[in-house]
Amino acid sequence: MRSSLIILLLIAFSLCLTAKEIDLKFGKTYIFKLKNGDLITGLVNNEVEVKDFGKGISVETQLGEAVIFYDQIEEYRLQEEQYRHAHRVYFMPTAVPIGDNHFIGNFELLFLYGGFGIMDKISVTAGRSIIPTIPSEEQITDLNVKFTIIEEDYEDFEGKLHVALGGNLAFVNNDNRFIHAYGVATFQKKRSRLSLALFSKLGSEDIYRPNFKDNFFDINYANGAMGLAIGLDTKFTHWHDIHFIGELWNANIAKPQDTGVLLGFRLANTKFGADFGLAFFTTPVVAPFFSFVWTPF
Predict the structure, then answer these.
(1) CA 202 vs CA 127, 167, 177, 178, 186: distances in Å
(2) What class has domain 2-80?
(3) Domain at 83-294: CATH code
(4) What DSSP letter does each residue of 39-90 carry, written as one string?
(5) What is the pTM of this model?
(6) pLDDT tens digits along 176-230
(7) Which of helix, strand or coil describes residue 235?
């Protein structure tokens, strides 16, 4: 008797899980990943039930109307939420919140970082370098907090505007502290996101002398300097998971020579993202950049 009760409870629990997992909004477009690996994009019309196959949904695709049964679905997301890396370009934060796209990642193999969202408004990212043979007090630490204050759709232009305010605290060695306040706006189209950020350096010193065992270089970065950054993230038309990413940075608009440009590509799906490219500086210096991000949740 007791074993039968346990079995019934397990069946009821599994049915509750199934019902919770399949939570679709009719009239919205979703991207479905099926258990056989196929991807289907379509507008969800209504729920259907077939005697031999169970419950499913009627989906309007480019090839016509199709029925997808619930037990065929491995994963699904709203089309507008399918790209889980919109909260950043490369270094540059966009105004798009992290939301539930919590992640962990690695810059240049030597900097571990991660981020999470709170209530689709607050985004927190933090990281620390792991440079071999360098003491802990000489490592690099970074913390970024962003508040998305505006998200507005523009039906006439088929776009969406995001606006965010944020702050950044970084240490290049324990003795060299950098504090920035910034505002960023991101205009989002179907395939592209263009971001513009203005930031200001607050407090601290004008001259910094980072040490990585030895004095590596001096940084002349005036207190109160105003900078700007422009970022572009656009998906290639014929490749579903490949994006072009580009950033332009100027740390002090009074010094146009303090400018850098990053140009690269991103391979991304709902679980992983990988960035590759080159950074160009007016020094002149050219350096490769790459990162890997995992969005497991």
Answers:
(1) 21, 10, 10, 8, 24
(2) mainly beta
(3) 2.40.160.40
(4) EEEEEEEEEEEETTTEEEEEEEETTEEEEEEGGGEEEEEEGGGS-TTTTBSS
(5) 0.80
(6) 999 999 999 999 988 899 999 999 999 777 888 887 776 667 888 888 999 999 9
(7) strand
